[in-house]
Specification:
The structure holds 2 protein chains of 2 kinds. The radius of gyration of chain A is 18 Å and the shape is globular. Chain A has helices spanning 9-19, 26-38, 51-62, 84-90, 112-124, 136-140, 144-158, 169-172, 175-188, 206-223, 238-251, 269-282; strands at residues 40-43, 76-79, 97-101, 129-133, 162-166, 192-194, 228-230, 264-266. Chain A is 48% helix and 11% strand. Chain B folds into 2 domains: 41-279 and 479-497, 3-Layer(aba) Sandwich (Aldehyde Dehydrogenase, Chain A, domain 1), CATH 3.40.605.10; 284-463, 3-Layer(aba) Sandwich (Aldehyde Dehydrogenase, Chain A, domain 2), CATH 3.40.309.10. Helix content of chain B is 38%, strand content 17%. Chain B has a 7-stranded mixed beta sheet with strand order 14-15-16-13-12-17-18, sandwiched between helices. In chain B, strands 9-8-7-10-11-19 form a 6-stranded mixed beta sheet, sandwiched between helices. In chain B, strands 1-5-4 form a 3-stranded mixed beta sheet, with helices on one face. Chain B is globular and about 70 Å long. Classes of the chains: A alpha/beta, B alpha/beta.
């Protein structure tokens, strides 16, 4: 696909505004919230992360609400490389995957051999999924081939592990850039494209996600390959999660409404979703203290 | 055993078709009808009061989504219209023309405020009586109706600034006839500038959607307008004819079909009555190779399926440059599967009910003609409700300029897709119609956009958007789409004499 076309910002925002008017009630709300949990990459990416913190998060990932077995476990936990063995051990026997950020996350500004070595090591340590960052410096300088080559080499280094490519859309700024970066990533071998590291000033937004979903759709039309999508950073409320799902539901449809094709990268979203689900079940909101903070 | 069917070639394409609605269905989210208090019978609003028609006749008005009767509405005869015009004349001579313009403005502001206060009730009623999705009556019709009153209220005492060096004077009694596609909004488009310019009004809403106009009558009453300044008479074509032909009417404003528009123009010829007509359309949307395709497709969908295609400026002819035609058609096909057709009161409905049986018959007939002429229909796969009037959104491909569906106004959710090779060809084809109401141009190149827009013979040309309305912006047509402008400063002209 040489000519990928352009994006019209005004109309992307208008479409998102329209889709945000969808009224998601009752059964649809419950089903949507449970689906959101099953699509979550429960994340901790802090310098102060410790084994204790990661263990607690893994427990929550497997059993988000001990009292209600109808609530699914999340899709994966997302951690820094050093925490991969801890998470792997804690999640043994469960369906929850281990995702690790790599490639000099979050800046991506390290020599390529170091990044490739990092990727190989996290996979050896047991990561099922690798969340890499693109080199935004190269992208903004117009060295698109370098960006693509790097992704392709990381993909090879991943072996069987799934590769999510973080575009860091907040730093790319324009929707045309986001669309171009999406295509570069998909063509270079990304299994997923992901908005953000969570470390930039602007992280996932609905309009940027729509731009990426439309790029995924065009790639699918052209090649028949289904690429996954992961908005990450700044998604904190159940209401936001449902808005993202509406976007997926009405842009890519059924095949993407699955943890195999869509993920939320989030650290604090889960408790708000649980709170809403408990509200639907009991008819009353419960205080935050009734949900574990891990 | 029958011989095995050969695999259709289309299936190759279908392999990459997207599937919608199988995994996560939105629960129904209906707006409550509780705020609407319907009366059993509605009378005529003449001289500030609701009065029984001299004709003694009433007719049922229904909800087109359920076919339930909502109320009985008066059918005004010639005598009733004569009373309405007399009261308008008396109000004009006695109060309205003598009133300080800033005082007129206060009344119009008051109407605007009261529409806002009763917005929820009015939007639900609009949806019940007309079949349009609540999202549109709530977000577009009612807020825009209020905005029109606000806007023209502002002009009332500034008319000499609108036309410097001229001497703008009111005309007298304006007879106004409006359609059923945007009932309250069209009433606002007509009444607001008429009042701001110092005229009094006799307005007839469409026979199928009289209820919000009658609520507006109540607002006029509550706003304490002098009796007779606004009169609202309900009825059919004969009532409209009585208004048009009344010798004491100084100005006729009509929005509706070209067929009726021609009759009115004939009737008004030689009478000295001032006339504006806002008639049909067969508007073109033009997509160039370099357009942002997904956003263009979204604009096409909005252009033709908004309000079930019951829009005089609906973008019913799509011209796609050949290089992107295949892509655009595939995207349109997938996109129409996500249109939610059904209960207009459901907040998630995108396409509501067809306004009347008569309109449904017309759409059905034209779509059949399209199929008979070899055009290929693609429709939203949806279950239509058993009761009420419904038509699945339809996109026709394999359409030629000579096909009826590419020439005649359908006024329904039916799009004809045609192709072109060069900009010149696009302009020629887009202009090759008796109509000239609106057009849309989709291109990422600003210069191209302006160049093409200037060559299109259409009253409104939208660039990279469609169906944008604002009280400050004039609207109206060329050729068989009518004449005169509504909205903006230009919208004052039809209600003034500048001698």
């Amino acid at each position: 696909m040489k000519d990928i076309g352009t994006v019209d910002q005004v109309n992307i925002e208008a479409r998102v505004a329209m889709l945000c008017k969808r009224s998601i009630k009752n059964q649809a709300k419950i089903a949507g919230l449970k689906m959101a949990i099953s699509m979550m990459d429960l994340t901790t990416l802090e310098g102060k992360d410790s084994a204790g913190k990661v263990l607690a998060m893994c427990n929550k990932a497997m059993h988000p609400l001990e009292s209600d077995p109808s609530i699914p476990s999340v899709a994966a936990v997302c951690v820094y490389p050093n925490m991969v063995p801890v998470a792997k051990k804690a999640l043994k026997g469960s369906s929850v995957k281990v995702a690790s950020v790599a490639t000099a996350f979050p800046s991506g500004l390290a020599p390529l051999p170091i990044k490739l070595d990092e990727v190989k090591r996290v996979v050896e340590m047991g990561a099922d999924e690798v969340d890499m960052v693109i080199n935004r410096g190269d992208f903004l300088a117009g060295r698109y081939d370098d960006v693509a080559n790097e992704i392709a080499q990381v993909k090879t280094a991943c072996g069987n592990a799934h590769l999510k490519v973080i575009l860091e859309t907040g730093e790319l700024e324009t929707f045309d850039n986001v669309r171009l970066a999406s295509f570069i990533a998909m063509q270079a071998g990304a299994d997923f494209i992901k908005t953000s590291t969570g470390k930039a000033a602007v992280n996932a937004t609905l309009p940027v996600t729509l731009v990426m979903l439309e790029a995924i759709r065009d790639y699918y039309y052209a090649t028949g390959k289904r690429i996954g999508m992961k908005p990450a950073g700044g998604i904190r409320t159940a209401k936001q999660a449902l808005q993202y799902l509406v976007l997926v539901n009405e842009t890519l449809g059924d095949a993407w409404l699955s943890p195999d094709m869509f993920r939320f990268g989030a650290s604090t979203l889960l408790n708000d979703v649980l709170m809403q689900l408990e509200k639907q079940r009991t008819g009353a909101y419960q205080a935050g203290d009734y949900f574990t903070k891990d | 055993m029958a011989t095995e069917k050969p695999a259709a070639r289309l299936e190759l394409v279908n392999e990459r078709m997207l599937q919608f609605g199988g995994k996560w269905q939105y629960a129904s989210a209906p707006e409550s009808t509780e705020p609407v208090k319907l009366e059993k019978k509605y009378n005529l609003f003449i001289n500030g009061k609701f009065v029984a028609p001299k004709s003694g006749r009433y007719y049922p008005t229904i909800n087109p989504a359920t076919e339930e009767t909502l109320a009985e509405v008066a059918d005004a005869s010639d005598t009733d219209v004569d009373l309405a015009v007399r009261s308008a004349r008396q109000a004009y001579e006695k109060y309205w023309r003598k009133l300080k313009p800033s005082e007129r403005a206060k009344y119009i502001f008051r109407i605007a405020r009261m529409i806002q206060e009763r917005a929820r009730e009015l939007s639900i009623l609009e949806t019940m009586n007309g079949g349009k999705p609540i999202r549109m009556s709530r977000d577009d019709d009612i807020p825009l109706a209020a905005a029109h009153f606000f806007y023209y209220a502002g002009w009332a005492d500034k008319l000499e600034y609108a036309f410097p060096g001229r001497n703008p004077q009111s005309l007298g009694v304006a007879g106004q006839i409006i359609p059923w596609n945007f009932p309250l909004l069209m009433a606002a488009w007509k009444i607001a500038p008429a009042l701001a310019c110092g005229n009094t009004v006799v307005l007839k809403p469409s026979e199928t959607t009289p209820l919000t106009a009658l609520e507006l009558a109540r607002i006029v009453q509550d706003a304490d307008l002098p009796p007779g300044v606004v009169n609202i008479v309900t009825g059919f074509g004969a009532t409209g004819a009585a208004i048009v032909n009344h010798p004491n009417v100084n100005k006729v404003a009509f929005t509706g079909s070209t067929e009726v528009g021609k009759i009115i123009q004939r009737a008004v010829a030689g009478t000295g009555k001032k006339l504006t007509l806002e008639l049909g359309g067969k508007s073109a949307n033009i997509i160039f190779n370099d357009a942002a395709i997904d956003q263009a497709v979204e604009g096409i969908i909005n252009g033709i399926f908004y309000n079930q295609g019951h829009v005089c400026c609906a973008g019913s002819r799509l011209f796609v440059q050949e290089g992107v035609a295949e892509k655009v058609i595939r995207k349109l096909n997938d996109r129409i599967q996500t249109l939610r057709v059904g209960d207009p009161l459901d907040k998630n409905t995108d396409v509501g009910a067809i306004n009347s049986k008569m309109q449904l018959d017309k759409i059905t007939e034209l779509v059949k003609a399209g199929k008979d002429e070899g055009c290929v229909p693609h429709q939203t796969r949806c279950t239509l409700p058993k009761k009420g009037f419904w038509f699945a959104p339809t996109v026709f491909t394999n359409v030629a300029m000579s096909n009826r569906i590419a020439q005649e106004e359908i006024f329904g959710p039916v799009l004809s897709v045609l192709t072109f090779r060069t900009p010149e060809e696009a302009v020629e084809k887009a202009n090759n119609t008796p109509y000239g109401l609106a057009a849309g141009v989709w291109s990422d190149k600003g210069a191209k956009l302006f160049k093409i827009a200037n060559k299109l013979r259409a009253g409104v040309v939208w660039g990279n958007t469609y169906n944008q309305f604002d009280p400050t912006s004039p609207f109206g047509g060329y050729k068989e789409s009518g004449f005169g402008r509504e909205g903006g400063v230009q919208g004052l002209l039809p209600y003034l004499s500048l001698e």
